[in-house]
Structure formats: C-alpha cells, structure tokens
Amino acid sequence: MLFSCYILFLRTRLIFNMTHGYSFSRSLGGFTSTPRKRFTAFAAILAAIFLAVMFSSSGTFMPREDKMEQDIAEMQIHLQFLDSLYRARQEDLIALQNKVLASRGNYTPHQQPQPYHEAVAPTLTPELMTALKNFTGTRAAQGVQPKNLQLLRTPFVFQLLPHLMNDPNSLRPSYHMKSDRAFVDVVVGIPTVRRDKESYLLITLTHLINGLTADDANSTLIVVFVGETDLEYVLNTAKQIETTFPKQVENGLIEVLAPSQFYYPDFNTIEKSLGDSMKRVKWRTKQNLDAIYLMSYAQTKGTFYLMLEDDVIAKNNYMQEIKQFTAVTTISTPNWFFLEFCQVGGIGKLFRSSDLIHFITYVQLFYKNMPIDWLLESYLADRVCTIDKTSKVCGKSKTQIRPKYKTSLFQHIGLYSSLKGKIQKVKDSQFGAVPTFYPHVNPLLEFMRTDIQEQGEHTLKKAYEGETFFWGIKPKKNDLVEFWFDKPIFIKSFNFRSGNVDHTSDKFYDTVVEVVPAGTNNFTVVGSFDEFGLADGEISKEAGPFAALRLRVKSDSFYWVILSEIEIKTYDGNSSK
To answer: What CA–CA distance (Å, rounded) separates 131 from 152?
Structure first.
C-alpha cells in the first residue's frame, strides 16, 4: 500500500512537472545537477520507505524480506521510467532554448513546416469522406485528423533515417484513435498490416482482453499499430476494433496508430543483403521500421513494453504471471535486458521502457541488414560477448540478461505470414481446419492442358473450377500448364499459389507466367514464382487482349507440385455464365 501511494505521488508530480515545463527544470536543477546528488537523494528515499514500512507493520518486527525486495525493485524500475521521461522534457527545453537563441540572432528557418491540418487534408478522398460521415460520433472517426500531436521522439532519427527529411510531417501519425491513459504498468504493442489471406487481429485482441483481470485492464494499454498508408484501410480497421470492443476503446484500453506515408523510404532503392530476395528484404526492412515507430511511441506511455504480433493467442491471466515473474527476476537478475515469455521470433518480449531508447537506436543503425528477431540476438551479443569468447560462453552470457519464463504465455496461430505468399505451418485446434485450397470464379476457357502428370482426383480442371487443388508429379523442364480462353480477354491481374499447409514443399520452382496477345504466337513473360511458391502481378489494359496464359517450368523439380489457388481477374469482371 505504501509503495503504491508513493508511485502515485511520483506520477502526479511528474504530470505536474511536465505541464509546467521550464519551472520544472529549474525547481529540480539542484536535485539532478550531479550523479552523486541523484544517488544521495535516491538512497534517502529508499531509507524513508524502509523505515516507514518497518514501523507501520504490526504483529511482526520485520516485514517479509522477499516482499520488500520486490517492492524496492519495482520502485527502481518506475523511477528509471520517470527519469527517462524527465530527460525527454529536458530535450524539449534545450530545443526551445535553441529556438529562442536563434530568433535573437535574426535567424530565419529555410522553410516553415506546413500546418498539420493542411498536410493531412489532401489525403481525405471522397470515399473516405463518405466513410467518415457514416462513422460520425465514433472515436474511430476522431482519429483521422488528430490535433496537438507531438512528433515521434527518436534519437538521431534524421541522421540515421535521412529519408524522413523529405517531408516535415514524416514523423507525425496520419491517424491516431487515442485514449487518455498515461503512465500505465504495461504497454502492449501490436503491429499489424494488410495480410494476404486473412487477418488474425481481432482474435488476438479478444484473447489479450479476456486474459486480463479487472485490475490489469485498468493498468494496461494496448496499442495497435497499423503499418499501412491507405488511410481508408486504417480507418476501417479502427472502426472494426471499436465495433468489436466498444467498452475497451471507450475506457482507453485500446489505441490505434498509423504512420505518415512519408515515414517509409523508397523500398526499391534498398540493397539486397543476407542472400535474401528483394521481396523479403523489403518486408523485413518495413517490419523493422514499424517496430521502432511503435516502440518510440510506447516508451513514454508505461513502465514496461510487451512486444507481440497480430496473430497470437494468450494464456489466461497472462499479465499476472508476467508481473510476478518480472518482480522476482528483477531481484535475482537486476541487469536483465528483456524477459522472454514466448520463444517464437519477436513475440512475448518484455522490455523496461527506459531501456527501449538504446535498442531503438540500434535498430535504426541496422534496420536494412536483418530482421527484428535477429537484431535482438545481435544486440544481446554486442552487450555481453567479446571476440575472445566461444559461442558457448557467449550463449550463456546472453541467457543471463534474457531470462525465460518456464512456459510460453503466447502461442502463434497465424498460417499466412504478413510477408505475402509465406505459409507458416501452425495449426491450432481452437480455430478449426486450415483450408488447403482457395476457389475463385475464373474466365471461361476454350480448353486447358498440362504436361505434368495429374494425381488422382486433383486435376487441373477441378482446380480451375474451384473444386479442389491441382496436384502433379515432379514437373520437368519445359513442362507447361496452359489456359486458352474462349475469347480474347483483358487480364487485369493474376494470382497463382503453389503448395499448401499440408505440403509446403510441393511448390513451383523456377517457373514463369506467360501470356500471348490475341492474333500472335509470341508468349511474353509477365511474372514468376517466388521463393514462397507465389506468382502474382498486374497487367495494364493497353497490353491486351490476350488469347491464353500459361505456366512454364524452366528446370526439373525434386518435388511434386500443388496449385492451391488459381485466380485470373479481368477488367470487365470474370463470369462463368
């Protein structure tokens, strides 16, 4: 009780100080002038609390030692968080002082930033305006033109991400359905994007909310970061969240945040690395940028930050177990960097918010080099490993600053990755059977044929008509899968997905997609199957019409092949009538 009252006092004092700006800095100037004075003051606070707890306890001369140690450890983490906020306010004060000095020197900025409301206004399309009218009165609608939003705070951000200087509003959110919560215990960060097949976001939010006790729900903030620049999609996602969880949105448990379109660089200019395809390089680069945006926003909102993904389910009372393990571990291993509550990728990693600034800077340095979970491992190695240490010793050292919980509190459920085409073979009994093919209504054909030997009932004809998937035996070089239309058509887009959840290796390898314009015999390559067995693309209307489309195998395959999806869209719409 005493500890809770003290933390409440600190938070109230910090809010007062943040509100009063410059007077806050002056009033605490002596307190923060030197590390020695800070340490002396901190020790005095600990001593006062220790004595108060001792003399307030009745029936025993000494309180329980382990409980007091946990309280002190928790207080230290809260103080670290508050100190990081204080340093942020000092940065604001320094920036303000620099502006004052510049104005006194008759300094004129090169270019005045465009007002935020003017920068956002052109993105409101007629369709979006119509959607906003339908959402009138909802918190989701209020997030489209947020007022008084502060710039995202990241260190050296313009030097490390120079593309952000192309627009003055690059660090301002384009959307923010915000709550009034601040200084919570745990901020849960959930990045989400438009997925190839299906979204698991609402399932994830349902599990997270249901797994909270009433007290935990009041001391937690869930921030959903929508990593998309299509404002209409972002708004619809926010409205869907508000419709599904109206109480949680109203009381401030859930926020929705989206970045400006200028936050992202031109991904086509990024150099390949790690031997990855350009598709994977773009995906992991954007994933890193999304992660640090979310971390940068969350670091001032709560004492701890919990990294999750948008396709997980959580164990009941997960937050209680997290808090208990964190309290105990902070006593036994006070120098931990993050706690691990799930061993999969970037799921279930808990950070002190005051430590996030270091990792954010690290990711900014190497965001184009490797995925976020690899950067976590690399950062740990850089902290505790030296060149002369063996890998075994290094691994042991990393384990000491990343304590793992006895069991996983989160389970990954996503079948289709946010990386388009990638299948993650994860099944969960709670969500039923996973589809092995996806049917579509495709254009009428004059005939179809293939050189690949069909397996049983899984014929090319049935796959094209959406009855099942096509299954063929080991394609060979120059084998074809051809679709000849009953009349020339203007193809708008195509989508061929090979492999499925039961046979992830049965994909088309080294295979191209070709079309032949009507009245000619010349097939032209318009796409190819990527490393995930997916071939998709769009074709301009001026290039058509086309008499046929085919798949051509360029080398022998060691595997059988499955076509689990065949989709051909035309500019005038597909029809089987």
So the answer is: 28
Q: What DSSP designation does 106 have?
A: T
Distance CA 491, CA 362 (A): 45
Give the tens place of pLDDT for each residue, 243-291: 999 999 999 999 999 999 999 988 888 888 777 778 888 888 999 999 9
SS3 content of the chain, % helix, strand, coil (to 5): 40, 20, 40
Tell me which residue has tokens 């799930």.
Answer: 342
Burial of 239 (0-12, 13-18, 19+ CB in 10 A): buried
Whether the Cβ atoms of residue 256 and residue 176 lie closer than 8 Å to each other = yes
Instruction: Determine the Cα–Cα distance for residues 368 and 283; give it in Å rounded to an integer.
Output: 10
Cα 32 from Cα 314, distance rounded (Å): 41
pLDDT tens track for 35-68 = 445 545 555 555 555 545 444 444 444 456 666 6
Q: Tokens representing 89?
A: 């306010």
* Distant-in-sequence, close-in-space partners of 125: CB < 8 Å, separation ≥ 6: 232
**pTM of the entire structure?**
0.62
Helix (H) / strand (E) containing 79: helix 65-104
CA 223, 229, 231, 237 torsion: positive or negative?
negative
Q: How far is CA 173 from each of CA 87, 178, 227, 415, 539, rounded to the nearest angstrom? A: 23, 11, 11, 30, 33
Report the alpha-carbon distance of residue 437 to residue 414 in Å, rounded: 16
Q: Which residues of 368-383 are buried (b: 16+ CB within 10 A; e: fewer)?
A: bbbbbbbbbebbbbee
Contact between 46 and 52 under an 8 Å Cβ cutoff? The reply is no
